[in-house]
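for the recovery benchmark. tokens below, seq after
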């Protein structure tokens, strides 16, 4: 319940007969931490779950892909960005710790077992902040849970609008002690871009951070397509997985590809499906004049909307058939 917004924390405590001592300095500290967290969580809500999980992967954080929600992933990321990466769980040795308010708990499993890890460590009690919590049963000192590593925010994530536009609130207790991962130099193997402008992207690095896979025969041939992708910083995969960004389909084989299992898997996974010609077009760096002006496009869209509205008022084919059959019956009598 401490992972909720601060106002909801107060309400939940009151509902169960408790009262959070909001004037206590320790409670005030956790209130500001909570508000700072939710400031970033709200911004991360717009990011697709797949991209959030990629950030967790970059930090080797354990999660169950089927069970974790986008909101929970956003909470873990917001916590890490602000306060640093939590260490591995001292009980199951898995990087699955999460801090909910004043509690640090584990979401992982015991080694080589289907048993959930039960580790729970309380940093404070919001209802009785003057009394230090008793964590002796854990056999762990609070210092063992100290954050000593900066959260890893891959360059692909730093380029997301949410991080480029995010302005962290000031005066959040404990925030950025290890540094702000937004704007940090990329780790080895990544390319740093200062902006999304085409001219700022280094040549031969246009596809950096993107992973491609394809269906069946392609034009250009698969080996040539793979060489083109890798020579411009991309990654070409033989198989489709959760990290794939783009699935390439031959321009001449689109209909057949749609019937394949790989095509359906890509749709279910939310992988973008494009024609092979998309890759050379993406690398061309040519400014193409639009075939219609913006005003012409708006007029065409307006006509389409009016047509759709008019179509919805027309009787359906089944209704026309019913009317016709009724007329035939009347004539026969």
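predicted aa per position
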């Amino acid at each position: 319940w401490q992972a909720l917004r601060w106002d909801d924390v107060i309400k939940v405590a009151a509902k169960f007969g408790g009262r959070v001592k909001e004037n206590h300095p320790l409670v005030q500290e956790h209130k500001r931490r909570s508000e700072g967290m939710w400031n970033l969580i709200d911004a991360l809500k717009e990011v697709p779950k797949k991209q959030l999980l990629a950030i967790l992967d970059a930090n080797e954080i354990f999660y169950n892909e089927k069970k974790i929600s986008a909101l929970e992933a956003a909470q873990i990321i917001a916590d890490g960005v602000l306060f640093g990466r939590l260490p591995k769980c001292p009980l199951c040795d898995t990087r699955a710790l999460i801090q909910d308010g004043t509690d640090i708990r584990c979401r992982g499993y015991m080694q080589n077992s289907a048993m959930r890890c039960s580790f729970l460590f309380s940093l404070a009690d919001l209802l009785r902040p003057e009394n230090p919590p008793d964590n002796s049963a854990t056999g762990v000192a609070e210092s063992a849970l100290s954050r000593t590593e900066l959260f890893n925010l891959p360059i692909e994530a730093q380029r997301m609008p949410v991080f480029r536009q995010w302005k962290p609130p000031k005066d959040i207790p404990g925030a950025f002690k290890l540094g702000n991962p937004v704007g940090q130099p990329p780790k080895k193997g990544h390319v740093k871009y200062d902006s999304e402008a085409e001219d700022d992207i280094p040549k031969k690095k246009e596809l950096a951070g993107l992973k491609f896979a394809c269906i069946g025969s392609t034009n250009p041939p698969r080996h040539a397509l793979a060489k083109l992708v890798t020579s411009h910083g991309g990654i070409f995969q033989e198989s489709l997985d959760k990290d794939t960004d783009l699935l390439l389909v031959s321009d001449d084989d689109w209909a057949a590809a749609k019937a394949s299992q790989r095509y359906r898997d890509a749709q279910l996974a939310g992988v973008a499906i494009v024609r092979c010609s998309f890759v050379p077009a993406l690398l061309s760096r040519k400014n193409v004049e639009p075939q219609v002006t913006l005003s012409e496009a708006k007029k065409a869209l307006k006509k389409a909307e009016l047509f759709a509205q008019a179509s919805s008022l027309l009787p359906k084919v089944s209704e026309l058939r019913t009317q016709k059959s009724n007329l035939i019956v009347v004539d026969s009598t």
